[in-house]
Amino acid sequence: MTDTCAITDYEDYGSFGVLWKTVSEDCNLACDYCYYSTCGGKPGPRINRIDSAILNTFIQEYMEMSKGSASFAWQGGEPLLAGLDFFEEVVTLQAAYAPAHTAISNALQTNGTLITDKWAALFRKYQFLIGISVDGPSDIHDERRVDSRGQGSFDRVMKGIDCLRRHQVDFNILTVLHRGNIKKAKELIEFYEREEFAYVQFIPCMDFRSQEIGMAGSYDITPEEYGQFLCEAFDYWYNDGQPRTSIRFFDNMLSVCTGREAELCVHRSGCSTMLVLEQNGDAYPCDFYIHDDWKLGNVAKDSLNELLLHPARMSFLGMKKTLPAACQNCEYKPLCNGGCPRNRKWADDLSVSDPDYFCSSYKRIYAYADERMKTLGASLRRQLFTENVQRNFKGRLPGRNDPCPCGSSRKFKNCCADITVS
Ligand code: SF4
Ligand code: SF4
């Protein structure tokens, strides 16, 4: 069995967020690669949305445990099928139960086709951050993101995005990488720039076989294809040292090059502590571990403390740190941290695993981007350092043991002490 974390109370683990599958697998689209929804784009007349009593119980208990911040992510199926009244209820409960001065954040991942001005007004009012799934320009997107009649959804998605823009809602773009766009890095980046999409992230398309939890995740694209895609995308993203579009994978690399930790769980030293809930309240440690073997309980019956301290969650949190020998000695470990445990093939007792399925993709992009990332990182660090010295230290250098002004969380003497302030 893998090492388990020595946590005896949730207090030891700090704050945690929640990702909730708002309407179970109900969805108005029938994307051909989706392995979650089986309703074929035709949800029944009664949407399986989260029950009000469970919502109330959970939000009350979660808010009592929140320590100044509460973070909710709403996913589907298609979460907008829950209706405006559902999200009005959510924000009302959040406000009713939140201790004073709690920062509440709501993120929502949607296919974008149901967004209207009313939805956008609600998102703006309550400052939801919206993720929209777009796989590229219409010819690429419409191949696979279709409705129950097989018709592409691109035009409806773009109308939804127009609503968000009219109401100044913050949004980002999520592109699933599959065999239809994996060789089209240039086309994708040009599309994002043309549409002025400022924030983009890629997710490799998982294969239906990935529902078998005992297997390593399997994908619609090969590690070679993913590595090649990332290198080509990097060339466009880099743009002579002046990136115009924020691409999450590269932003994470840049963070590490400026002395910070990556923000993506895949490349952090530990897995996300987020609790993942099915629509009926069943709880799991990660979206990729929704399986009976990893079920922690149900928020309607079990206390949050019981769910957070469940042995399966402890075991899960230990997996990421149980790195294969290849990762422990890898020159790219600070950037990669071994990737995602779901992408490793594990021994039955979880004591040992192969490296991440995309290991060779990561090695390839890290080597390819190395020099330019380091140059960009050094220049960004210098810029942040100079700005913060002027702003926070009135132009004088901080003490050697002060936090470094570049924001790396390291002491000044161990970080930018060699930088001369202009
Ligand atoms: S298993 Fe993978 S996706 Fe899940 S939290 Fe860990 S790194 Fe992230
Ligand atoms: S690049 Fe490969 S070997 Fe290196 S840390 Fe990542 S998964 Fe492990």
Helix content: 25-40%
Q: Determine the strand fraction and express it as a percent band.
A: 5-15%
**Secondary-structure element pattern, one letter each:** EHEHEHEHHEHEHEHEEEHHHHH
- Helix/strand-derived category reads alpha/beta
Count helical runs: 13
Largest sheet: spatial strand order:
7-6-5-4-3-2-1-8-9-10
Number of strands: 10
Major sheet characteristics? 10 strands, mixed
Protein name: Anaerobic sulfatase maturase
Keywords: Iron, Iron-sulfur, Metal-binding, S-adenosyl-L-methionine
Family: Belongs to the radical SAM superfamily. Anaerobic sulfatase-maturating enzyme family.
Domain Radical SAM core: 13-239
Notes on the protein architecture:
The chain is globular, with a radius of gyration of 22 Å. The protein has helices at residues 52-65, 84-97, 117-125, 138-144, 154-166, 185-194, 223-238, 248-257, 304-308, 311-319, 325-328, 333-336, 359-392; strands at residues 18-21, 69-75, 103-110, 129-133, 171-177, 199-204, 246-247, 275-277, 282-284, 297-298. By secondary structure, the protein is an alpha/beta fold. 35% of the residues lie in helices and 11% in strands. It contains 13 helices and ten strands. The site of one iron/sulfur cluster (SF4) has 13 residues, from helix 11, helix 12 and helix 13.
Relevant terms:
rSAM, alpha/beta, metal-binding, globular, 422 residues, PqqE-like, 13 helices, Anaerobic sulfatase maturase, binds iron/sulfur cluster, S-adenosyl-L-methionine
Would you spell out the secondary-structure blueprint of this structure?
Layout: E1 18-21, H1 52-65, E2 69-75, H2 84-97, E3 103-110, H3 117-125, E4 129-133, H4 138-144, H5 154-166, E5 171-177, H6 185-194, E6 199-204, H7 223-238, E7 246-247, H8 248-257, E8 275-277, E9 282-284, E10 297-298, H9 304-308, H10 311-319, H11 325-328, H12 333-336, H13 359-392
Parallel strand pairs: 1-2, 1-8, 2-3, 3-4, 4-5, 5-6, 6-7
Antiparallel strand pairs: 8-9, 9-10
Bound molecules: iron/sulfur cluster (2 copies).
The site of one iron/sulfur cluster has 13 residues, from helix 11, helix 12 and helix 13.
